[in-house]
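Pasting two entries for a bug report.
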Amino acid sequence: MTSLAHGCSGKGNDQVRFDITLRSGSDLPIIAPIRDKNLDRDTELEFAKKHGIEIDAVAKKFSIDQNLWGRAIEGGVLEDPYNEPPADAFIWVKTKNLPDKPTYLEIKFNKGIPIAVDGKTMEPIKLIEYVNKKAGSAGVGIVDHIEDRVVGIKSREVYETPAATCLIEAHADLEKMVHTKHENKFKSMIDDEWAYLVYSGLWQDPLKTDLDGFIEASQKPVSGTVKLKLYKGSIRVVGRKSSNSLYSHDIATYGSKSTFDQRLAKGFVELWGIQSTEANKLQKKMKTKT
């Protein structure tokens, strides 16, 4: 082997992910013809036509990246950020004639990992494919937003991510049930940083390994089932249960069987707000003096 090659352009984020990952494990030269020759989309399509490389109709209209987790759709009419994506841009998510009845998904997690859907235990790939199909049929999973690429370009990105949308929503909800509020607050910061490292092509950075350690430890209690309601493109958590739940019905209930002594709250509230109330009193005094 004398070199490493990929097909990324010089505008996207994939080039960053490929180059940094390849460079972290090898000193071989990296060849990226589209980037290195500064090729545009029209030139690429003409090259493909000239050499008998078949390009399907959708790929001629848009630039599409696709894997198990989602489809990224760019280019064509989408380059005007005010244009609504045409229906033929989507193949995973249904946009017309959606079901008149809601669709329900029950996702079971074990230590943070989804292991079953609708009572059926599945391997990860099959599980994601199942949720992609079911959620997509309910119109769930389209993301359309303005993104800041690593190379500094603002880009209009349209994604189809039915399974990702459902799994992330369900997982985050289950974490709220089994983690303390302090864990949830800190975990959200960890999630943001982890996602930034991955998005920015820094998968090999030592910080990601450090964050992986925290995330793995935080997932030990994240076991249970979350029920999602999908209806005409919307998604909502409508139920959750876990043997590790920190939710106590006896404490939370407003009924007569409550075990929470509300009288204790008075002193807590006084102490909790003492600095804020004192600060406001001081500000009022300063205003009267002026």
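Entry 2 (this is the one that rendered wrong in the viewer):
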Amino acid sequence: MSNLLDSSYDQLQQWVRDQGWKPFRSKQIWQWIWQKGCTDFNRMSDLNKQIRSRLQEAFALEHPEIHTVRASSDGTIKFLLRVGWGDLIETVLIPEGDHYTQCLSSQVGCPLACTFCSTGRMGFSRNLSSGEILGQVLVARDYLARRGDPVPLRNLVFMGMGEPLLNWPQVEKALRIIRDDAGLGFSHRRTTLSTVGVPAPLRHFAESGLGSLAVSLHAPTQELRSELMPRAASLVSLDKLIRVLEELPLKPRQRITLEYALIGGVNDDLKHARQLNKIISSLRCKVNLIAFNPDEAIPYQAPDRDSVLRFEEFLRSKDKTVFLRKSKGLDIDAACGQLRNKEEAPGI
């Protein structure tokens, strides 16, 4: 029995037609799923009993199950969710003043094995379905509603477990429902996809207009990127990735976000700032600097504050738009993959 959350609107429309029902039933069912977050067909009160019974016979209505919730002193909320046959994935709500941003996972684990990433340590199990991706939003939205939180969920970022462009068919399907006004109804300006750079689907995403693009660089040379991100660096060279980014269609005020995690003594020196400035000089971009969030199982350290400030000030002196992103949820293992690794570690 398929999960109705995995259906596109066109698929639902076709199924409704096949039942001999009037077309407006598709919109009613769709709104119950996405706008009202319904988890029980019997609660779909404007559908008659016959329709509700037929839906129950044909579909499941499965949301991810909350396994663990941790709340940080800074307001960050991390969920460990159970999907499918028991796979655990993470999603995080990050407070941003007057709204929350949710970090979404697109895979169970990750095949890229970046050396500084906790998710990279766990390996790769499988891609998430579109319904499992979208279900993370439904769970978070329901959690906020049940606790009476007045702060809305307004932004979505594909920056959780996995490389979204290696699961592009399901991510694209999810993005279309995220953008759909009758679905989840998020603006493209409030939806961001983060990728290490997978050229073909990267172009498809950029041309689709389904969201904003963030690219994880984390190193200013191919050699250093090969040390930190060996599989990403072998997937596409840094030079080629920059050329791909140069050719992407951008709207007049649109810019690509470049993400750079500053790792103490590894990529945070002024020479790295100079190298980074040189390779991105041809791009219409902004730079997000992120101080590395330490994990006891990973042999890297957070950068010292002076190094971070020098790196930031140098890029600003070269007229680059730079944002220094603070690490949040340090007390709840909020960095990607940390909580799941601890939950599954023997003896913990």
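Dev reply: Rendering is fixed now. As a check, the viewer should reflect this: The chain has a mean pLDDT of 93.
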